[in-house]
Amino acid sequence: MIKYSSRMTGWAASALLALVTTASAEVKLNDNFSVSGYIEGSYQYTDPKPGDSTDRLNIDSSQLLFTTNFKPVTGVVSLFYVPKAEQETTLLDAYVTYDAGNGLTVTGGKFLSYLGYESFFTVNNPEISFANGDFLAPIPGYHSGVKVDYGTKEYGVGAALVDSVYSPFYLKGDGELKHNAGFEGYFSYKAVENLILWAGVAYDTKGSRDIASQAHAVTTLDFWAQYQVDKAITVAAEYAHKDGGPGAKGYNWLALMTYAFTDKFSTAFRVSGEKVTDGPSFTKFTIAPGVAVTDKLTVRAEYSYYDYKDAATDKANYFGVQAFFKF
Question: How many helical (H) and strand (E) elements, i.e. helices and strands, does the chain have?
Fold first, then answer.
């Protein structure tokens, strides 16, 4: 199975944006309200062996995000649109953050998981496809709850209590704590110039009641590091381990380098893989050049080669061209 859906966002994506894609600037409506968003479309071609090749030309997704700022309280609401999805338009973000000062914030509502180096939103990544997640999907999506974060220039730490870390549909939790409480936490180290070290953990107490194969506790560990070598080169690596019971235990990884040839043209080089314990695995090789046509419009391409083991597919070639507009 080759997956091209959206995932998470965080510090890593923000740091890479300076090199590999255009910046997104909020449209300020007044001193208290602003709006931002994007729309992306692509042509994607996949040729698995054995199997028949497929292609698609479509709008992939779009997001409209509204921010209210009444210091020390900030509110965020976003609408997420994916054509032909089970629910095409979804309320994605819906949370309020209180800034207590001195680096401490408290957030409640529906928000994104801490975990994952790659962004939930593909427009914030230097490639079109994700590094992995085809079999295990260890990186969670959105869930509802409360979280507390504290950060300085040298480090950051956070903890969250949510309705579930993993849920039947990646854009919503199960809405209950008594059935399946979820916990997340992270620690980041940033004291060395241009270096970020990040470690996180997620724990679901009971798993999904709607999916029999996931009706058990799930623990995920995630580690990633990023280093900006110079103005042109950034390197990164990630390792994630998930223990979710039979058929849902294993690990995935990635190694990435982005190189900015000019202020407008950059290329990402990535090697990644995934292994299910006593199950299938794959290694993926990716090259993805991109060009900033304007400050708001970016076009990029990607070629990826998959080498599978113990899976229905032996190998696969993927090619895509994507354009997105951010505001």
Answer: 1, 17
pLDDT digits (tens, 9 = 90+) for 97-136: 999 999 999 999 999 999 999 999 999 999 999 999 788 8
Instruction: Provide the token pair at 196.
Output: 């970020």
Q: How far is CA 327 from the centre of its chain?
A: 20
Q: Which residues pair with 66 in a beta bridge?
A: 35, 77
Number of residues written out for the chain: 327
User: Is the N-terminal amide bond of 72 cis, ω within 30° of 0?
Assistant: yes
pLDDT digits (tens, 9 = 90+) for 48-73: 999 999 999 999 999 999 999 999 99
Amino acid identity of residue 224, one-letter, is W
Q: What residues does 67 pair with on adjacent strands?
A: 34, 76
The rounded distance, in Å, linking the Cα atoms of 140 and 136 is 11
CA dihedral 134, 135, 138, 141 (to 10 degrees): 50
Cβ of 294: how many Cβ atoms within 10 Å? Answer: 9
Whole-structure pTM value? 0.87
Q: How far is CA 164 from the centre of its chain?
A: 18
Q: Which residues contact residue 122 at a Cβ distance below 8 angstroms, ignoring those fewer than 6 apart?
A: 4, 6, 40, 60, 61, 128, 130, 322
Phi, psi values for residue 20, rounded to 5°: -115, -10
Consecutive H or E run containing 186: strand 182-189
Closest CA to 36 of 44, 23, 27: 27
- Decide if 89 contacts 102 (C-beta within 8 A): no
Chain centroid to Cα 32, Å, comes to 28
What gap in Å lies between CA 136 and CA 47, rounded to an integer? 22
Q: Closest by alpha carbon to 302, among 284, 282, 325?
A: 284
Rounded Cα gap, residues 25 and 22, in angstroms: 10
